[in-house]
Amino acid sequence: MTRLNRKKLQASLLITLWAVAMVVAYWWYEARYLRSFIAQNVLFDGEQLRLPDELAGPGPIRLVHFWDPSCPCSVASQQHLIALIERYSQQGVSFYVVQAPGSQGHLPEAMAILQTIATLSGSDKIPSSPAVAIWDRSGKLSYFGPYSEGASCTSSNSFIEPILDALSSGRTVNASNMLAVSCFCDWPQD
Fold first, then answer.
1. CB neighbours (10 Å) of residue 62?
2. What dotted CATH number matches 40-186?
3. What whole-number distance in Å separates Cα of residue 38 and Cα of residue 25?
4. How far is residue 163's CA from residue 143's CA, in Å, rounded to a whole number?
5. How confident is the model over 59-101, as pLDDT tens digits?
6. Maximal C-alpha separation, the chain
7. Is the pLDDT of residue 56 over 60?
8. In 3-state terms, what secondary structure has residue 186?
9. Which residue among 1, 28, 51, 113 sits deepest, i.e. has the most Cβ atoms within 10 Å of its Cβ?
């Protein structure tokens, strides 16, 4: 075997090993975090969610972010949430956060506008995070579910912008039960 052929063989083996490693890494990520709620019979059902008395009833549009600091999927949604805050807080949308029970961690400084809700009735029964709930100006739950569909969370595949735009323009939205395939972590149950 000539020296040139040996180098080509080594390069081919390296590329093959790299490709196999990428497939295994993707498979591990998909098996661990990218879950189909239809396949697992898990549903984002917002019927149990109730805002605390001081936030319930008529008021601004309220977005509640359900966050688990230990979930790697939460990192993917943070940049999207920052963009939502920058765009919609100027339109009067109020932003809140519910942190997973028993978890420890702090949101980035860019998310300092998020007001903490210590307890939100029904949040102990949500299936996974990151998740979002949106209440309209009348205080009715309009949306509960994931930020987007797929492994990444951006404005291009988001469910949130169309809902906030509709609510901001006075239209009614009723999407409090969602099925999706996305990046999720189990929400700790009390």
1. 22
2. 3.40.30.10
3. 24
4. 8
5. 999 999 998 888 877 777 788 889 899 999 999 999 999 998 8
6. 79
7. yes
8. strand
9. 51
